[in-house]
Amino acid sequence: MADKNKKVIQWDRRNILDLKDLSKEEIDLVLETAKSFKEVSKRDVKKVPTLRGKSVVTLFFEPSTRTRASFELAAKRLSADTINIAASQSSISKGETILDTARNLEAMNVDLIIVRHGCAGVPDELAKHLKGSVVNAGDGCRAHPTQALLDMFTIQERFGKIEGLHVGIVGDILHSRVARSNIWGLKKLGAKVTLCGPPTLMPIGIEQMGVDVSYDLNEVIEKVDVLMLLRLQRERQKDNFLPSLREYAKYFGVNKKKLSKAKKDLVIMHPGPTNRGLELSSEIADGDNSLILDQVTNGVAVRMAILYLLLGTKT
Ligand code: CP
Predict the structure, then answer these.
(1) Under 8 Å CB-to-CB from 42, ≥6 apart: which residues?
(2) Which one-letter DSSP state was computed for residue 28?
(3) Where in the chain is the domain with CATH 3.40.50.1370?
(4) Closest-lying ligand 1 atom to the alpha carbon of residue 67
(5) What is the pTM of this model?
(6) Residue 204: CB partners within 8 Å, gap ≥ 6?
(7) CB atoms < 10 A from the CB of 241, how many?
(8) Domain spanning 145-295: which superfamily?
(9) Beta bridge partners of residue 136, listed in sequence order
(10) Is residue 293 within 8 Å of residue 94, measured between CB atoms?
(11) What is the DSSP letter of 84?
């Protein structure tokens, strides 16, 4: 029987830039839509005609394995045409501005641009000037909305819910767009969030986002249902935030011994790429509690849902 209390929403968003902007209902709609697309990737012929005739470009200014490949697979599985542009090999390296590059792509009637950039706000700036859709695939330390959506999908798939769960996010919070997007999303869906990491990698005033902060990983491990580990982003660390990597691994790296007091059904997540031996040991990364590869699998379904909602629902 249909749930009469469930708010039915119309998707009228042109871009996905930050989960700060999305309502709970919009997040729910993405996660619900992704469920039906997950089945497509299990078929022998992993393709549906939903976005036939649409064109999608990935424009990446930073390295990526998961996000770029899964957006490309998602678009291809929906029958859209795709082009990948690595900024280092494009005319941007000859002095063209990002906006001019994007406008030239739009002049070729591209429908959607997926952009990753080291500076916060670049996707928003493109969205302001383009007629087509823009999806943020990670901008600086600010937002990685599609990563958080696939993380929430994976949590919901495992626990059947997000509301009431306790999620610990561990590591380099200061530089993490994944942490910020997950905080926005998880709080909207009713989870409790505790952040944990060295004081030097904890943004001042982050509690204002409605999260708890702890500097003791052992204390956090005992309480949480989900332990989301973050990559130590050494490329963004201009100063000496840590005395040594060995010390980081000792206090904030997760290994089997530290998990001995965890809840039985605790799950380990990591957006990747992982630094084995630093953020987590191999036995944890590859262990029964790890959802790391499930996150990657679900990334395709969630990105199919996003492309469908942005491009496939308009006439
Ligand atoms: N999680 C994530 O964004 O991975 P990539 O950098 O490989 O895209």
Answers:
(1) none
(2) H
(3) 24-143+298-312, 145-295
(4) 8
(5) 0.95
(6) none
(7) 19
(8) Aspartate/ornithine carbamoyltransferase (3.40.50.1370)
(9) 115
(10) no
(11) E
Residue 273: cis peptide before it, omega within 30 degrees of 0: yes
Which residue, judged by its Cα, is nearest atom 3 of ligand 1?
67
- To test the ligand 1 pocket, which listed residue (61, 62, 64) has its Cβ within 8 A of the most ligand atoms? 64
Q: Which two tokens stand for residue 186?
A: 């998880």
CA of residue 230 relative to chain centroid, distance: 12
DSSP state of 212: E
**In a structure prediction context, what are the per-residue pLDDT tens digits for the chain, which is 315 residues long?**
455 566 667 899 999 999 999 999 999 999 999 999 999 999 999 999 999 999 999 999 999 999 999 999 999 999 999 999 998 889 999 999 999 999 999 999 999 999 999 999 999 999 999 999 999 999 999 999 999 999 999 999 999 999 999 999 999 999 999 999 999 999 999 999 999 999 999 999 999 999 999 999 999 999 999 999 999 987 766 667 888 899 999 999 999 999 999 999 999 999 999 999 999 999 999 999 999 999 999 999 999 999 999 999 765
185 lines ligand 1 (CB under 6 A): no
Q: What is the dihedral of CA 117, 148, 302, 12, to 10 degrees?
A: -80
Q: Which of 135, 89, 94 is nearest to 111 (CA)?
A: 135
Out of 1.10.3720.10, 3.40.50.1370, 1.10.340.30, 3.40.50.620, the CATH code matching 24-143+298-312 is 3.40.50.1370
Note the pLDDT of residue 1: 46
Residue 137 Cα: closest atom of ligand 1 = 3
Q: Which amino acid is at 124?
A: D
